[in-house]
């Protein structure tokens, strides 16, 4: 896929959804961070149900520490791996208070040092909360990029590096949201909905599978 086609894909995605909204609920960097940690191997819908109940009770590091791990587990027990996630969240709260004054740092390395926070989660926080032109690669982004041949990679790191190389700066702020939504609702894992895809004529999926 050449640069011209990639740009046309981004233009169409932008036209279709000029201001994509994050799928996880949250009104502060801390809320976004915790929601993203909870979302590992869980659906956004299930996480939003949990945070809708949790955040009115505790939505800052001091409040969650006072809330306690057992109450936290009770609130998030409908989500997979809730025991590990509860432990990570409590430890995150301790670290934020001890090293960052209770605030979520706008720093990739500092975010990745938090328990339960990988590169994807860190990039989501930096992009969503601090408007950094970083591109988080989840399973949807990885699938869409490889299937369409927009950015081919054997792992998420390779795809992320290629996206940062191929995607012009002006598109980077919303790029991962466009690909996430496209992968979630159109370019489905088992059977892509090519007939209803607004970038079908630019996609190289059929070409590579014909």
**Total E-strand runs:** 0
**According to CATH, what is the class of the largest domain?**
Mainly Alpha
Provide the residue-averaged pLDDT: 94
Helix-strand sequence = HHHHHHHHHHHH
List its traits.
single chain, Endonuclease III, domain 1, 2 domains, elongated, DNA_glycosylase, lyase, DNA binding, EC 4.2.99.18
What does it look like?
The model has no long low-confidence stretch (mean pLDDT 94). The relative contact order is 0.13. The two termini are 16 Å apart. The radius of gyration is 18 Å and the shape is elongated. It is built from twelve helices and no strands. It folds into two domains: 3-20 and 134-208, Orthogonal Bundle (Endonuclease Iii, domain 2); 29-130, Orthogonal Bundle (Endonuclease III, domain 1). The chain has 210 residues and is mostly helical. Helix 4 packs across helix 6 and helix 5 (69-76) crosses helix 6. [4Fe-4S] cluster binds at residues 187, 194, 197, 203. Residues 38-185 form the HhH-GPD domain. Its EC number is 4.2.99.18.
Which helices and strands, and how do they pair?
Blueprint: H1 3-16, H2 29-38, H3 44-54, H4 61-67, H5 69-76, H6 82-100, H7 108-112, H8 119-130, H9 139-148, H10 156-166, H11 169-185, H12 205-208
Helix pairs in contact: 2-8, 4-6, 5-6, 9-11
Short description:
By secondary structure, this protein is mainly α.
């Amino acid at each position: 896929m050449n640069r011209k086609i990639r740009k046309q894909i981004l233009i169409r995605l932008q036209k279709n959804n000029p201001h994509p909204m994050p799928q996880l609920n949250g009104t502060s960097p801390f809320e976004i961070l915790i929601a993203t940690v909870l979302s590992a191997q869980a659906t956004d819908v299930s996480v939003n149900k949990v945070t809708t109940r949790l955040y009115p009770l505790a939505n800052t590091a001091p409040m969650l520490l006072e809330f306690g791990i057992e109450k936290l587990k009770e609130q998030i027990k409908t989500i997979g791996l809730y025991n590990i996630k509860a432990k990570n969240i409590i430890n995150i709260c301790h670290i934020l208070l001890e090293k960052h004054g209770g605030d979520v740092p706008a720093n990739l390395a500092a975010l990745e040092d938090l328990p339960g926070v990988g590169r994807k989660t860190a990039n989501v926080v930096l992009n969503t909360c601090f408007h950094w032109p970083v591109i988080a690669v989840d399973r949807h982004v990885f699938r869409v990029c490889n299937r369409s041949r927009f950015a081919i990679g054997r792992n998420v790191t390779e795809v992320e590096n290629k996206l940062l190389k191929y995607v012009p700066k002006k598109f980077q702020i919303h790029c991962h949201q466009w690909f996430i939504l496209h992968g979630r609702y159109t370019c489905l894992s088992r059977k892509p909905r090519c007939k209803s895809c607004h970038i079908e004529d630019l996609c190289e999926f059929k070409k590579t599978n014909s």
